[in-house]
Design goal:
Elements: E1 2-3, E2 14-21, E3 27-37, E4 43-54, H1 57-66, H2 72-96, E5 104-117, E6 121-125, H3 128-135, E7 139-141, H4 143-149, H5 159-166, E8 172-178, E9 181-187, E10 197-203, H6 206-215, H7 226-230, H8 235-241, H9 245-248, H10 262-274, H11 279-301, E11 306-312, H12 319-329, E12 333-336, H13 337-340, H14 347-360, H15 368-371, E13 381-383
Parallel strand pairs: 1-4, 2-5, 5-7, 8-11, 11-12
Antiparallel strand pairs: 2-3, 3-4, 5-6, 7-13, 8-9, 9-10
Helix pairs in contact: 2-3, 5-14, 6-10, 6-11, 8-11, 10-11, 11-12
């Protein structure tokens, strides 16, 4: 569970900084978190502070281009530069929490996914050694690798945090993250029996943001959903796009920019233009694709009696997308993570801080019913300061 504003004696807790750079390539979020172990493997967590450092246009272009092209020299330099950016974000979170760095047990870095092809391979860039050098703090990184090595999808990994920290007291809950890629966790009530499940639902903001940037140069994304609200979605095009085999695959499953790439976005725009869509209509169609893919996933793959759908990630700040999802899943109650817990921008960074804590106490961080791995595994690699 998450504690709000309840300070505990540092002798009874571990403080970690979680780092997340998502597939939306909008920036790095760093969260300083205090974990307090309890009875029966329970853990309480307190968010001390979080910061978000946006990528500038040049940094974003390097990250997006790396998925589709690059030389060994470019990949090598990007991995080291990411280590610098991640380390600086961690230091900013430590400062925001008014912490002495010596009190921080470790930094847990997800890095930035360059390629994810489960169950064969996965690669998250961002050199842990660079982070350790810039902060003087131990770093736990490469969380997805061990699960993929064990035959799993390597994603979503946030499901364990969804169960340990964000479950509802007396009902099943669905937690939907809307980063570049969308993922969902189906979580039993707190302390109750039931199988935790989770999987990627398809695009979150990746296609929406890519379309907005391509059609309205200078926009980093569709600010406040203004473009989508001014347009009308092409239902027939969304019908066709939902025929993509990924949407029909049963869980466990994961996807990424390998599928919803800039080439996919270019084809999306071409097809919308051929159908006579305006720029606003095209963005509205991208919003509809994300919303309908989530509704489709709930109808096809979720049999648990979920009482609410809790939205987090950058997409939860897009009113047009929230409204479209709300309409698509009605009468299921839709809530924003911010309104239930803490600012949703910090959620994934908190989740990876938890995965770092689990690594340090030698507890598995993957959930077999979510990723399909051969068994529970302690995730991550430790780089000493």
């Amino acid at each position: 569970m998450i504690a709000r504003g309840t300070l505990v004696d540092a002798r009874d807790a571990s403080i970690l900084v979680g780092l997340m750079s998502g597939t939306s390539a909008d920036g790095i979020t760093a969260a300083a978190v205090r974990f307090v172990p309890g009875a029966n493997d329970a853990v309480a967590a307190e968010l001390l502070a979080h910061v978000t450092r946006g990528y500038d246009s040049a940094q974003r272009e390097r990250l997006l281009a790396a998925v589709e092209q690059g030389t060994p020299a470019e990949y090598c330099r990007l991995a080291f530069d990411l280590g610098v950016w991640l380390g600086d974000a961690a230091r900013a979170a430590i400062d925001a929490a008014h912490l002495d760095p010596a009190r921080v047990r470790a930094i847990a870095s997800h890095g930035h996914t360059i390629w994810h092809q489960p169950p064969h391979a996965t690669w998250q860039a961002g050199e842990a050694a660079v982070i350790a050098e810039r902060t003087g703090i131990d770093v736990v990184s490469d969380f997805r690798v061990r699960d993929v090595a064990a035959g799993g999808q390597g994603a979503p990994l946030v499901s364990i945090a969804d169960r340990m920290l964000f479950s509802a007291p007396d009902a099943w809950r669905a937690l939907q993250n809307l980063g570049g890629i969308g993922n969902i966790s189906i979580v039993p009530p707190l302390g109750a029996q039931g199988t935790l499940r989770g999987f990627d639902t398809g695009p979150g903001c990746a296609v929406i943001d890519g379309v907005a940037r391509a059609l309205e140069p200078g926009l980093p994304y569709d600010v406040d959903g203004a473009l989508a609200r001014a347009g009308r979605p092409l239902a027939a095009l969304v019908d066709e796009l939902l025929g993509e085999p990924f949407f029909e695959l049963p869980p466990p499953k994961a996807t990424g920019r390998e599928l919803f790439s800039r080439a996919y976005i270019a084809r999306f725009i071409d097809r919308a233009r051929a159908a006579g869509a305006s720029p606003a209509d095209t963005v509205a169609t991208a919003v509809s694709l994300t919303a309908r893919s989530i509704g489709l996933a709930l109808r096809r793959f979720v049999r648990e009696p979920v009482a609410d759908l809790v939205l987090s990630g950058g997409g939860a700040r897009n009113p047009a997308l929230v409204d479209a999802i709300t309409a698509e899943v009605a009468p299921l109650a839709v809530r924003r993570f911010d309104d239930v817990f803490f600012p949703g921008d910090a959620k994934e960074a908190v989740a990876f801080a938890l995965l770092g804590w689990l690594h340090l106490v030698r507890r598995p961080g993957n959930v077999v019913s979510v990723t399909g791995a051969r068994g529970p595994r302690v995730l991550g690699t430790l780089t000493p300061a």
